[in-house]
Amino acid sequence: MKDEQAWAQLQQRCQGCGACGLRKERKNLVFGQGNPFAKVLMIVPAPTVAGGRQLLGGAEGTLFWELLSLGGITPEQVYVSSVVKCPVPKGRKALHLEQNTCLPWLRAQTKLLSPKVIVCLGQESLSVIMGEELSMAQCHGQWFIRRGVEMMGMYHPEDLLQDQTLRPQGFADIKSLEQKMKQLRMTSNK
Ligand code: SF4
Predict the structure, then answer these.
(1) What is the CA(187)–ligand 1 centre distance, in A?
(2) 115 C-alpha to center of ligand 1: Å?
(3) Of 11, 30, 101, 103, which is best to mutate to test ligand 1, by the most ligand atoms within 8 angstroms of its C-beta?
(4) Residue pLDDT, tens place only, 100-136
(5) Which of 6, 56, 82, 110 is most buried per CB count within 10 Å?
(6) How far is the CA of 163 from the centre of ligand 1 (A)?
(7) Considering the chain, what percentage of its residues have pLDDT values greater than 90?
(8) Pocket test for ligand 1, best of 84, 92, 103, 109 (most atoms within 8 A of CB)
(9) How many angstroms separate the CA atoms of 142 and 169, rounded?
């Protein structure tokens, strides 16, 4: 109950945020998607306008949840969040200033979630979270440990939709996640 209240309060505070320019064009703020008590945190760069009220909606969402299912991972086992909470206008990425201004919300979510595993979906998320420019082609599927948390980068579903030759790698990364969860004895949400 205490955790639920903390999540609700955090979401309410985030809804009122106007700390960067993305607020001006915002119709929906997307706080997160999935189980807020899961121990796997997945991070995308930003909500897409096409995703509506979801971080991973439309064709991207369909592919993402299918891949998880093929890897034996259920939607209840993951929580999806983003580097920035307000949708970024089509045709551009979030600016560094927007990312840095919004990151405290993701940090607060991470603190509440206390994940055992963090997966960054897409090069942009991976680079922001790791604090350096990284290539997804070189880094996807590799595990890092940061502050005791296992972390991995994998292709964003949008990448897999745009380039179908990447799909086997996306699937291999999901299987690697499944193995890591087994290794950490994460058979449920614990
Ligand atoms: S993107 Fe983040 S920092 Fe900017 S207004 Fe939205 S919630 Fe606030």
Answers:
(1) 34
(2) 23
(3) 101
(4) 999 999 999 999 999 999 999 999 999 999 999 999 9
(5) 82
(6) 30
(7) 81
(8) 84
(9) 12
How far is residue 123's CA from residue 99's CA, in Å, rounded to a whole number?
Answer: 14
Domain residue ranges in the chain:
22-183
The first and second tokens of residue 168, run together, are 């086997």
Secondary structure element (H or E) that encloses residue 79, with its range: strand 78-82
Angle at alpha carbon of residue 89, lines to 133 and 122, rounded to 5° = 30
Q: How far apart are CA 170 and CA 39, in angstroms?
A: 21
Q: Which pTM does this prediction carry?
A: 0.94
Q: What are phi and psi of 88, to 5 degrees?
A: -95, 135
CB 42 within 8 A of CB 79: yes
- CB of 97 closer than 6 angstroms to any ligand 1 atom: no
Cβ 83 vs Cβ 99: under 8 Å: yes
